[in-house]
Each structure stands twice: as C-alpha cells, then as structure tokens.
Amino acid sequence: MTGQSTRPDDFQSHRETYEGFLHGTIALILGVLFVLVALTTFAFTDTTSVLLGMSGLIAGLGSIAVNLRLAKPNWLISIVILVGFALLSAALM
Q: In which band, very low, low, confident or very high, does the pLDDT at 55 lie, cut at 50, 70 and 90?
C-alpha cells in the first residue's frame, strides 16, 4: 500500500474507467467481426462483391464510431448491421 487514504470520488472515477474499458472492448470485438465478414466476402465471392464488402465494412465501422460517441452506447444497431451484413454475404456465396 502507498499509505494514501481513498477518497469517495475515487470509486466514481474507477467506475468511469471500467465502463470506458468495456465500451472499448465491445467496439474492438465488433470491429474484428466486421473485418472477418468483409474478408470472407472478398475471398469467397466474385469480383463484383468487393463493393458489398467495402460498403458493409464502412457501414459497420461507422456505426461503431457513432456508438462510441454516445454517452450511453446502444450496441444493438451495430449488431443488427453485422448480422445483416453476414447474412447478405452468406447469401451471395
């Protein structure tokens, strides 16, 4: 121990840091999933689906960026876009 006493506002700053860490972790996981679906679209579909892969990747990363800017993120929109992008990519294979 450092010998310093804890202040009541330390818990609030700890909670804010923890929530920020969770939001960053969720955003990173969703970003990786969008990249994986886009790479699958690029690899297993014809050349015309590059536009679909890039537009899905841009839409997904954009929705993640919007969610990170919100005070209380709602990840449902990003998840719906991810599932729709994955289903559309699977339908084209």
A: very high
Query: For the whole model, what pTM was predicted?
Result: 0.81
Residues in contact with 42: Cβ distance below 8 Å, sequence separation at least 6, in sequence order: 49, 50, 53
Which residue type does 53 have? G
Q: How many CB atoms lie within 10 A of CB 78?
A: 26
Torsion of CA 23, 28, 31, 36, to 10 degrees: -140
Structure tokens at 79: 């998840």
16-44 residues labelled b (16+ CB within 10 A) or e (exposed) = eeeeeeebeebbeebbebbeebbeebbee
Summarised one tens digit per residue, pLDDT across range 75-91 is 999 999 999 999 998 88
Contact criterion met (CB below 8 Å) for 18 and 54? no
